[in-house]
Design a protein that fits this description.
The complex is a heterodimer of chains A (about 240) and B (about 450). Chain A has about 240 residues and is of the alpha/beta class. Chain A is built from 8 helices and 6 strands, in the order βαβααβαβαβαβαα. Chain A has one domain: 3-Layer(aba) Sandwich (Rossmann fold). Chain A has a 6-stranded parallel beta sheet with strand order 2-1-3-4-5-6, sandwiched between helices. In chain A, strand 4, helix 5 and strand 5 form a beta-alpha-beta unit. The N and C termini of chain A lie far apart (about 60 Å). In chain B, about 25% of the residues lie in helices and about 25% in strands.
Chain lengths: ~240, ~450
């Protein structure tokens, strides 16, 4: 039956919104794997995990990214989770090549992958893409504004892309975790509201099944984020230095 | 988004998809088919009353059969050549005017002849008449090469004929079909209903009703205690006319989609209790009220809310009645109350490899999406069905996993081989076909 103009067009999955064929770009990501583990498993027929080790995936190469994504679409792909990214603390570009690399991976490569996936999914007119942004993108903090800027950039791009895809059948979803206790954060002092990757996975999976575009992990960070954005500069600086 | 791509969903409204919908004449379809580009293919659609993704083709073309409305009835023999876009309701009306009726009609009149063949639908008369294909004498099918071929159930074209029957639109566009109508002298049904306190009694009652009545079906209460109590409805065509009855029927319409489903264990239990205790029908009943009870409420699928619902209809051979009891107890465990439980006995199967009905029992259940553990429970049922020689009905399906398909439809490979001959370019595509590996 025809759908009225006011109704939102979802992605094509089964009745339970369970994806069948899934790709995880960043195949070793703990959050990425946790999202997939938390999805309804009933319909899944294939999970393709793409990483440097098993797929000759080279995140730094635009050509390699293009070929990697194209190769995924021999059949319909219902869900792609992009879970690549590096973490760093330093905001000093003159000193730190790691930060330049982080900008390349977290923003340039991720945005490129997002765009490639969206364009392939537009042809099949269905599909979901999940990217992992961060709570750090909410407001620049002295201790991680370099990293935060990469996440703010990809978050901004993903939101714009998501809006541009309304009624195309393709959805872009954004997960904004706070501090997640993964191997990437080993040795770091856990920030307040820290969670384990499994919890982040459940929130990511729920986001994919919902009509929302963005979710925080834990959910409570949504309120914290609002407060963060609206705190007067003086108070925010104090917190930021701490 | 180009304006010609439009979203649609199946009757269950739980899966949506965006396609290029074309309402074309046969000549226009032929031209488009020959020039079809890309991998998303094309799919014929009728009134889209299939529940899941059988009539969806995301990113591809949907050829509506809306314009295929011609018909020509031989008043002597009751043979009618009818366009694929004509609905069962229209066919009934055409036939009744001349003292005929299709021997097989489904629970809703809002399906097209093309859809009825493509799903090899059944009705309350299955135990006597078999499925819809048993009244199809021939059909014209538009192949993906743009050529129209006439297919017959027997002879050199029979393989293509039976692959198109229950072929879910994946072998070609049914342009028209020649059907054999049944001559009738009455214009209403003589009906009787019988109330049964649990599933064992209900099964026995249905068995005995089948010998006496041409049309039988049981409504099962799947709520509360889940004991499977219900009401068996039985009917025969009357042999005389009563001018009080015509095909006309009053109907109301559900005008809006509710945000949340109105179907909850509590509402189902209350409604079912009322339905079970309502006065039993006996005597004369109009054809519409008996054959298409749900058509009295337009867009009734909207009561299931924004996320929609799914229908789970399976068949199971005789001797496996215990599975029906298992279903009841498992549904009770997950509080999976079903608003519509329909139980029926099937007669013999048709020759089509993908045809659903096979001798034994069939049970159809409606569930709102969102019942916890429903997906896993239905998958358990699927597994059991595979072991017991049962299967689920593809035109209702919106969730089956592809590996179950060949176990339920053991001739699916044979069907795929014939399909490959009919459509070497693999142009016919549907979302369900992609999901289940049929195309």
């Amino acid at each position: 039956m025809e759908i009225g103009p006011r109704e939102k067009v979802g992605t094509l999955l089964n009745s339970f919104r369970s994806p069948q064929r899934i790709a995880l770009i960043g195949g070793t990501s703990e959050i990425g794997n946790a999202v997939i583990a938390a999805l309804p498993q009933g319909a899944i027929t294939e999970v393709i995990k793409i990483s440097r080790a098993n797929s000759n995936f080279n995140v730094a190469s635009a050509l390699n990214r293009t070929e990697t994504v194209r190769a995924l679409f021999t059949q319909d792909l219902d869900l792609a989770v992009i879970a690549i990214g590096t973490l760093g603390n330093d905001g000093d570009l003159s000193e730190d090549a790691n930060l330049l690399n982080m900008m390349d991976v977290n923003y340039v490569a991720t945005a490129h992958l997002l765009s490639l996936l969206a364009s392939e999914m537009k042809k099949q007119r269905h599909g979901q893409i999940l990217i992992i942004s961060s709570f750090a993108q909410e407001r620049p903090r002295i201790d991680n504004f370099g990293y935060g800027s990469t996440k703010a950039a990809i978050d901004f791009y993903a939101r714009g892309l998501s809006d541009s895809l309304i009624n195309s059948g393709v959805q872009v979803k954004i997960l904004r975790p706070g501090f997640v206790r993964t191997k990437m954060t080993v040795g770091m002092k856990p920030a307040p509201f820290n969670i384990d990757p499994e919890r982040a996975g459940v929130i990511g999976a729920n986001l994919l099944q919902s009509d929302s575009k963005i979710a925080y992990a834990p959910n409570l960070l949504k309120i914290v984020a609002w407060v963060f954005r609206h705190l007067p500069e003086k108070i925010f600086l104090k917190i930021s230095k701490a | 988004m180009p304006p010609d791509f439009s979203p649609s969903s199946g009757w269950g409204r739980s899966i949506q998809s965006t396609s290029l919908r074309a309402v074309d004449s046969i000549e226009e379809m032929q031209e488009k088919l020959v020039n079809l580009e890309g991998h998303r293919g094309a799919l014929p659609i009728g009134l889209q009353r299939s529940y899941g993704d059988s009539a969806l083709n995301s990113g591809g073309v949907q050829f509506s059969t809306e314009k295929l409305q011609e018909w020509n009835l031989d008043r002597e023999t009751g043979e009618i050549r009818v366009g694929a876009g004509v609905s069962i309701r229209q066919l009934e009306s055409i036939a009744l005017d001349q003292g005929f009726f299709p021997a097989i009609v489904p629970g809703t009149g809002f399906v097209t002849i093309g859809g009825a063949i493509a799903a090899d639908i059944h009705g309350k008369s299955h135990h006597k008449t078999g499925s819809f294909s048993s009244i199809v004498k021939s059909m014209q099918v538009l192949y993906s090469d743009g050529v129209i071929r006439e297919l017959y159930p027997d002879g050199p074209t029979s393989a293509h004929f039976w692959a198109t029957v229950a072929g879910m639109g994946l072998t070609g566009i049914i342009v028209n079909a020649e059907l054999q109508l049944k001559r009738i002298s009455g214009n209403y049904f003589d009906v009787r209903e019988s109330r049964c306190a649990d599933l064992s009694i209900l099964l026995a009652e249905l068995r005995s009703a089948d010998s006496e009545y041409d049309h039988t079906v049981a409504w099962v209460d799947l709520s509360g205690e889940f004991r499977g109590r219900g009401v068996v409805g039985m009917g025969n065509f009357a042999t005389d006319r009563d001018e009080k009855f015509g095909l006309k029927s009053r109907s109301i319409n559900i005008p809006i989609t509710f945000n949340k489903s109105l179907i909850t264990p509590l509402t189902v239990k209350s409604f079912n209790s009322f339905w079970y205790h309502k006065p039993l029908k006996s005597g004369k009943l109009s054809i519409n009220a008996f054959t298409h009870p749900l058509d009295g409420i337009g867009s009734w699928n909207r009561v299931y809310g924004k996320r929609g619902f799914l229908q789970y209809q399976f068949s199971i051979p005789d001797g496996h009645e215990d599975f029906l009891f298992t279903v009841l107890s498992k549904l009770r465990e997950i509080k999976g109350a079903s608003f519509l439980g329909v139980l029926k006995r099937f007669g013999s199967a048709s020759r089509a490899p993908l045809s659903f009905p096979s001798p034994g029992w069939t049970l159809a259940l409606d569930f709102p999406i969102g019942i916890p553990r429903l997906e896993a429970t239905l998958t358990e049922f699927d597994q059991e069905l595979c072991q017991r020689g049962g299967r689920i009905y593809l035109v209702k399906d919106s969730r089956l996993k592809p590996d179950f398909l060949p176990k339920m439809y053991q001739r699916s490979e044979e069907w795929k081989t014939v399909r490959a001959q009919m459509d070497p370019g693999n142009k016919w595509k549907s979302d369900q076909g992609r999901r289940l590996g049929l195309c």
